[in-house]
Design goal:
Layout (H helix, E strand, L loop, with lengths): L9 H11 L9 H5 L5 H17 L4 H11 L11 H20 L12 H11 L8 H20 L8 H4 L2 E3 L16 E4 L19 E4 L9 E4 L16 H6 L3 E2 L24
Antiparallel strand pairs: 1-2, 3-4, 4-5
Length: 277
């Protein structure tokens, strides 16, 4: 059975475009695909907002600053950049207004993986009956986004940091709550790149738990790494020994035929004879 919960096509399209851009990929080069943060949706939304601003000609300085930031942006959802935070906040405003047009009072409960595709379709086709002026709608959403963003990161839009807007926190559900020492069991907060529509899919609620590249022609050329480490014991050297590589987008060779082990645990099972009745 098909339940209808399909994802928007942006990530799949970007993966297909990256893989089709060249031939003879090497396993280590696939990491560049896994950590790609381009968002076609956010790039499209930024262009729509800029076009609406140019038509409306607002005198508000922050609107001009935001339009300048979006105008020169390349669609990369990178930490340390303001534009991705602007488009994320604009999308939230826009989605809420669109939902209220068809289901009053349901904006806070509406959930759909295809929501961004619906928003893009409406902005491209601009059907009558939804909104009388889509450019005015976009400028209204940009104004609401700026009002919200100022409360979070201050009045200078150009200095906003998307990475701080969606910080990553990995918390130990038990030890992380201990008084005084709990923080030593947790990781973060750290600024994070990525978006729901980029290959590196990241939001405040989800992210890649591991990365893996399998070379089916030669398994010895495969790579993998976890988000933190192999051990759940804080005093172990493996508690978060893979964290730096995960955060930076590096990985480790997977060993199959020849294993270079630093430590060996040898288990010798013993069979006990049982007496027969």
């Amino acid at each position: 059975r098909v339940d209808g919960h399909f994802a928007a096509p942006y990530r799949a399209n970007q993966i297909r475009a990256l893989l089709g851009s060249r031939a003879q990929w090497k396993p280590e080069e696939m990491l560049a695909v896994q950590k790609d943060v381009y968002s076609a949706f956010d790039h499209f939304l930024a262009q729509q907002v800029v076009a609406a601003f140019d038509k409306q000609k607002s005198d508000r300085p922050q609107l001009r600053e935001a339009a300048t930031v979006l105008r020169k942006w390349n669609g990369q959802m990178e930490k340390g950049v303001a534009a991705p935070m602007v488009t994320s906040l604009v999308y939230q405003q826009l989605l809420k207004l669109m939902i209220e047009r068809v289901a009053v009072g349901m904006a806070d409960t509406y959930q759909s993986f295809m929501a961004r595709s619906v928003v893009e379709k409406l902005l491209r086709e601009r059907p009558p009956g939804w909104f009388p002026d889509y450019d005015a709608l976009l400028l209204r959403c940009l104004t609401g986004a700026l009002d919200q963003g100022v409360k979070i990161q201050g009045s200078s839009v150009a200095r906003w940091d998307f990475g701080q807007f969606q910080e990553l926190r990995i918390e130990s559900p038990v030890a992380g709550r201990l008084p005084l020492i709990g923080k030593y069991f947790n990781i973060g907060p750290v600024p994070m790149s990525g978006s729901p529509t980029s290959v590196k899919q990241y939001t405040r609620r989800l992210g890649p738990s591991l990365r893996m590249v399998i070379d089916l022609g030669d398994l010895e050329h495969s790579f993998a790494n976890l988000a933190t480490g192999e051990s759940g014991q804080r005093l172990s050297s493996h508690y978060k020994d893979q964290w730096d590589a995960y955060y930076a987008g590096r990985s480790f060779p997977m060993q199959f035929g020849k294993v270079d082990a630093k430590d060996v645990l040898l288990v010798k099972p013993q069979v006990q004879a049982t007496a027969r009745p």
